Structures are given as structure tokens and as C-alpha cells.
């Protein structure tokens, strides 16, 4: 494996973070434009969750890509990132609609993205040995 990608720990972390990023993207795509969002996401507090999740998604996407670019070979980054993007809709479709379209799903996405950013900060500072 080291002939393909010498930094396997960084590869695993990148794949996990990029999966969270892709799933977040799919959930947030259903919330824009604002007037077409699902009925469950029109209740009070949902708009704040959408805006906060969008800001966190941008940070997580930028951080994950920067981490991958700094730690992985560019070919590995493209192949693994592309494979994750290709297969991310499968678990998204398997989620119950309440987790994709409502405040409960937005709150769970918020927690996942905060955890993803915390992991990204930890591995960025430690140099990706967290295995």
C-alpha cells in the first residue's frame, strides 16, 4: 500500500472527513433555495440551523481539501475524493426522510460537522498519526 499512498493514516482521515462533507452537501442542497425547502425544515429555528450548517460546511470542505492536498499525493486525493463523491448518495438515500429533511437532521448534521472540524483540527496539528 505504501507504493500507492505512503501516508495511509492521512488517507483514512481524509476519506472519513470527505464523506461527512459530501453527505452534508447533499443534505444542504435540499434546503436551497429557501422557498423550496421541505415542510419539516420550515419550522422555527430551522433557518438558523441551515445558515450555521452552511458556514460549517464551507469550513469543513475547505479544511478537508487543504488537509488532503497537504498530506496526500494529488492522484490519491482525486481518486479517493471522486470515489467518495460517487458513492455518498447511497447512504444519503438510505437515511430516513426525517433525518434528511427536518430540523432533527439539521441538528445531527451540525453535530457531525462540529465533530469533523474538531477531528480536522486535531489531525492537522498532530500531523495525522491519530490511528
Strand content: under 5%
How many H/I helical runs? 6
Quaternary state reads single chain
Any idea what the shape is? elongated
- E-strand count: 0
Uncertain parts: none
Kindly state the percentage of residues in helix: over 70%
Radius of gyration from the alpha-carbon trace, in angstroms: 16 Å
Order of helices and strands: HHHHHH
Brief overview, please?
With 131 residues, this protein is mainly alpha-helical. It is built from 6 helices and no strands. It is 74% helix and 0% strand.
Structure explained in plain terms:
- α1 runs antiparallel to α6.
- The model has no long low-confidence stretch (mean pLDDT 85).
- The chain has six helices and no strands.
- The protein is elongated and about 50 Å long.
- The longest helix is centred in the middle third of the chain and has 26 residues, at 46-71.
- The chain is mainly α and 131 residues long.
- It has helices spanning 8-29, 46-71, 74-87, 89-94, 97-101, 103-126.
Please give a handful of descriptors for the protein shown.
mainly alpha; elongated; 131 residues; 6 helices
What's the structural blueprint in terms of helices and strands?
Elements: H1 8-29, H2 46-71, H3 74-87, H4 89-94, H5 97-101, H6 103-126
Helix pairs in contact: 1-2, 1-3, 1-6, 2-6
Amino acid at each position: 500500500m505504501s507504493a500507492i499512498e505512503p501516508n495511509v493514516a492521512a488517507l483514512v482521515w481524509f476519506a472519513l472527513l470527505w464523506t461527512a462533507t459530501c453527505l452534508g452537501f447533499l443534505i444542504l442542497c435540499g434546503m436551497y433555495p429557501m422557498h423550496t425547502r421541505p415542510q419539516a425544515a420550515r419550522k422555527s429555528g430551522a433557518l438558523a440551523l441551515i445558515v450555521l450548517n452552511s458556514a460549517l460546511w464551507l469550513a469543513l470542505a475547505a479544511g478537508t481539501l487543504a488537509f488532503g492536498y497537504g498530506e496526500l499525493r494529488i492522484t490519491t486525493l482525486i481518486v479517493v475524493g471522486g470515489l467518495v463523491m460517487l458513492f455518498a448518495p447511497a447512504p444519503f438515500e438510505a437515511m430516513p426522510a426525517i433525518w434528511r429533511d427536518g430540523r432533527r437532521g439539521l441538528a445531527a448534521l451540525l453535530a457531525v460537522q462540529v465533530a469533523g472540524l474538531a477531528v480536522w483540527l486535531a489531525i492537522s496539528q498532530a500531523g495525522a498519526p491519530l490511528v
